[in-house]
Specification:
Layout lengths: L2 H13 L2 H10 L11 H17 L4 E5 L7 E6 L7 E7 L20 E3 L2 E3 L7 H18 L5 E7 L9 H8 L8 E4 L11 E3 L1 E2 L1 E10 L5 E2 H4 L6 H12 L17 H7 L24 H6 L3 E9 L8 E2 L2 E10 L8 H11 L5 E5 L8 E2 L5 H14 L4 E3 L8 H7 L3 E4 L15 E3 H18 L10
Parallel strand pairs: 3-6, 3-7, 7-18, 8-17
Antiparallel strand pairs: 1-2, 2-6, 4-5, 5-19, 9-16, 10-14, 10-15, 11-13, 12-14
Length: 463
């Protein structure tokens, strides 16, 4: 009975085809939460696939009613109430399959192997990642006969629609089936494909819609050019006031503090999206910051879509309306309640009182992060380094958004995220894939981490 044997068991599960068999079965369930007609598949993923798997590992499973969306699976294996309790998180829902956009030979609901790539919808986000963690638990139980700690598992089915209802579910069950000491989740990408990563939270995401509605209909540009305000130009100028020409934010309240502890954590970190990732525009964004500081320690404003007139069928007319869908990704230190009011004040100061601001329809995740100096951070870093032989990259937060604020604020948990994917995985797009080397390494490092959690000889932060 040893740590090395538990890690070897996890690796053997991958090498002998167990991981691929389980993932193939899970990907075949079309559990997209973005298509209402797939509601049955969302429930089936929990009831027919994950609950039986966890049940074999000694977990007691139950479905929690979600007042605003699909049910949530809560599972628990309590070995001794006096032991540390760890809550694991994952989501079994995916984005739309986009079946007709995958390249020839690939399909969203069928696993296909090409070299080191495991293709299929959910392989990276998030079925492959929580499958790694479940299998690592199994390896420790098989080797030790027990975990040595209490484990709970929360699997939601609405993350891709903004985790609707999860906040209410956690508030209702925070003193019961979801009560724990620390959260460990696996979602999002590593900072670089070949280096394990720990991130401590997530940037918040605030969807913003800007609308200019000057008049009904469009009018001939020859007859009215120079006489009628152009809604597209007005909106373009308003957008140009929000950032400068290189995308640096000009709204004072949107410019966050950058704590020295965060800068120290990001010193020397290089953002690497892998061979398929885009080339970083190093002259874009906030001057004076490194690329890592811009995406992990700072705010970014993005225009995601802009429409004026009929771009697919342009005519000689002055548009009366224009609309832009935008998003502010923001870090801890930004007043989330003041994001929209601050933009209103900014536009008014610059003469754009006729630009209407609406909050976008998608759900909002708040910015959150665990203190980089927290003892859990060093403990997890040391455990992963012991397994892999190299120190993981530790990031203050994920560049995207996750429901980390719910776990930190509602469940009052320390939060550690250990991803098993990479930025070039085509997440949310056609041809989504998981890299086999990352999955295999993830199985080993998670088995090592779970072993350490239950080993009384390994010092860890107190519950």
């Amino acid at each position: 009975m040893s740590r090395a044997n538990a890690i070897a068991r996890a690796h053997a599960y991958f090498d002998e085809g167990g991981f691929l068999a389980d993932l193939t079965r899970r990907v075949a369930i079309p559990s997209t939460s973005q298509e209402p007609e797939r509601a049955g598949a969302l429930r089936a993923y929990l009831v027919d696939e994950i609950a039986p798997t966890l049940g074999k590992l000694g977990f007691t499973c139950r479905l929690l009613d979600n007042p605003r969306g699909p049910p949530v699976l809560a599972a628990e294996r309590i070995e001794n109430p006096a032991l540390l309790t760890v809550l694991l998180y994952g989501h079994g829902d995916t984005v739309r399959g986009l079946d007709d956009l995958w390249r020839s030979g690939l399909s969203p609901w069928k696993v296909v192997i090409e070299g080191d790539r495991i293709y299929g919808r959910g392989t990276a986000d998030n079925k492959g990642q929580h499958s790694v963690n479940i299998a690592a638990l199994a390896a420790v139980i098989a080797e030790r006969g027990e975990l040595g700690f209490n484990c709970k598992f929360l699997l939601e089915m609405a993350e891709e629609t903004g985790s609707v209802g999860l906040r209410e579910v956690c508030a209702e069950h925070g003193d019961g089936v979801l009560k724990a000491d620390v959260l460990i989740g696996s979602d999002g990408p590593r900072n670089a494909p070949d280096v394990p990563t720990i991130f401590l939270g997530a940037r918040g995401g605030c969807p913003i819609v800007l609308v200019v509605d000057l008049r009904e209909g469009s009018h001939h540009s020859g007859n009215w050019g120079g006489l009628l305000a152009n809604a597209g130009i007005v909106l373009a100028q308003a957008l140009a006031s929000i950032t400068d020409a290189r995308g640096a934010i000009r709204v004072p309240e949107w410019r966050p503090p950058l704590p020295q502890a965060v800068r120290d954590l990001l010193a020397g970190v290089e953002v690497d999206g892998g061979t398929d990732g885009p080339t970083i525009d190093r002259d874009w964004g906030e001057p004076g910051l490194t690329p890592a500081e811009r995406v992990f320690g700072w705010n970014s404003f993005e225009v995601q879509a802009f429409v004026a007139g009929t771009p697919e069928r342009p005519v000689n007319a002055i548009p009366g309306t224009a609309r832009a869908h935008c998003q502010l990704k923001y870090v801890v230190g930004t007043d989330a309640d003041d994001i929209i009011p601050a933009l209103r004040r900014h536009l008014d100061r610059h003469g754009f009182a006729n630009v209407e601001i609406r909050r976008g329809r998608s759900s909002v995740f708040k910015a959150s992060r665990l203190d980089p100096a927290d003892p859990w951070v060093g403990w997890a870093r040391d455990s992963i380094a012991r397994t892999t032989g190299r120190a993981p990259t530790v990031l203050p937060n994920f560049g995207g958004s996750l429901p980390n604020d719910i776990f930190a604020e509602i469940l009052n948990l320390k939060t550690l995220w250990i991803p098993h994917s990479y930025a070039g995985c085509s997440q949310h797009a056609p041809n989504e894939h998981l890299l086999a080397p990352i999955a295999r390494e993830g199985l080993g490092l998670m088995a090592g981490l779970f072993w350490d959690l239950g080993d009384p000889a390994v010092s860890r932060p107190p519950a």
